[in-house]
Amino acid sequence: MKKAKLLCISGIDGSGKTTISRILVKELQGKNKKACYIYGRIIPIFTRIGIFFGKAFILKQSKGAVSKSYKDYEAHKKSFLKNNILLRVLFKYSFLFEQLIQIYIKVVPKILFCDYVILDRYIYDTIITDISPNLEMSSQDALNLTKKYLKFVPKPSMIILIDVPEEIAYRRKTDIPHIDYLKIRRKLYLEVFMGLKEDDTGVPIYIIDGTKDISELILELFTKLEGG
User: Fold this and answer.
1) Which CATH number goes with the domain that contains 172?
2) Structural domain tally of the chain?
3) Angle at CA 200, nearest 5°, toward 195 and 204?
4) Nearest in space to 42 (alpha carbons), one of 88, 107, 86
């Protein structure tokens, strides 16, 4: 049985990943290709419980002082995790464990029965967006963790990072708590993906300018996907 081409599209919130992924699927389907869209980043289920109680505990410890300030809340949260080694371990591996489960449930069946699987985010995004900033991991640590866990998931045929300046992404979204949230993650994305490119993983990796016109982006991705 022929396996699908697995295209992973990553980037900070507001980079246009979801819009581009869905249009790309429609374009492929219009060419009589069996193309499937999957949201590939973790959707917290079990970890959501821990997040809820952790947030409540942090707010209680701070006596509500950080509830209205993103920067204060983030500083308090990171300090809390930094000083609790067991919680750091639980935080990291609960996210990774649940992410792996979801990948095998959602992605593997589609690979077997579709021609193209377009992944709107993947394990990279969980590590870069959810784990690394909260644990104050360096980009090198994030890269090492990414390479380690890529061994346990289906290998992509191509990886795309849609890069946009955080100021533009911030204007596009209404649910981002602070522009610093994007700045931290954009830096991690660029450094981790450049590290993956330099390591020559055998998977084509492209960093694409997300400020281009959407039709131009789709054409560029379509050309790369068909060529790959």
Assistant:
1) 3.40.50.300
2) 1
3) 95
4) 107
Measured between alpha carbons, how far is residue 20 from residues 14, 32, 57, 216 in Å? Answer: 11, 19, 38, 11
Angle at 173 between CA 168 and CA 106, to 5 degrees: 115
Is the separation of the CB atoms in 167 and 211 below 8 Å?
no
Asked whether the beta carbons of 144 and 197 are under 8 A apart, the reply is: no
Q: How far apart are CA 9 and CA 3, in angstroms?
A: 19
The pLDDT of residue 27: 92
Is residue 52 exposed (0-12), middle (13-18) or buried (19+ Cβ within 10 Å)?
Answer: exposed
How much is the pLDDT for 102? 93
Residue 135: both structure tokens together: 């644990």
Residue closest to 41 by CA, chosen among 12, 77, 78, 73? 12
Torsion angle of alpha carbons 135, 70, 18, 37, nearest 10°?
50
Residue 153: which domain range?
A: 5-227
pLDDT along the chain (228 residues), means of 10: 85 96 95 95 72 55 56 72 82 92 94 95 95 94 96 95 97 92 97 92 92 93 79
Q: In the prediction, which pLDDT does 125 show?
A: 96
| pLDDT at position 66 | 47
